[in-house]
Amino acid sequence: xxFADITLEEKQVALADLRNIKExxxxxxxxxxxxxxxxxxxxxxxxxxxxxxxxxxxRDKSVHTPEDFLFVNASGEACESTKLKPSAETLIHAKIYRxxxxxxxxxxxxxxxxxxxxxxxxxxxxxxxxxxxIKGLGIWEENAAIQIPVLPNYADISAIAKLIPSSLQxxxxxxxxxxxxxxxxGKNVFEAKRHLEAFEFIxxxxxxxxxxx
Length: 213
Prior knowledge:
By secondary structure, the protein is of the alpha+beta class. The protein has five helices and eight strands, in the order H-E-E-E-H-E-H-E-E-H-E-E-H. Zn(2+) binds at residues 107, 109.
């Protein structure tokens, strides 16, 4: 599908969804500084030809402006003439879309996900077991045990993107960057939000378990 074939309504819905999610997450303090990024896929999908709306670089996500988002293609390049730059981590979003076919990806920096990703960085995953909110990831096994992947936080974003295919787990809709933050995704905005909230609850429980010894 060409970007020109995506309807105005589809674009408007994607932007409205991103504004709504941005406002909710900002109210929780999940975008300290100008950190974090959000994206929503628009139009039809194929692994080599898709488009998504993504947060523009360096914006204060606690306020709304007409320059908060732009549309990019599967290579992370702007689809329209604009002075805006996509988030520096757009290549990571593009790789996750390509590998999973998901519909939305949300990335936030929180104290708990940063601390745990550093704590388990050498292990390569954050372990969690027996937490009720694991069900929020679609895993209903009793006393389920999961491993949330942790990737190195290289300055070269393309180097991180190359690691994503080998790190993905089909039943875990998220990955952590070490001492950086979580990327969570889903088939749509609602599911991606649910997954992110579940991950953040899991991280806080696991951190407090460690603190309690």
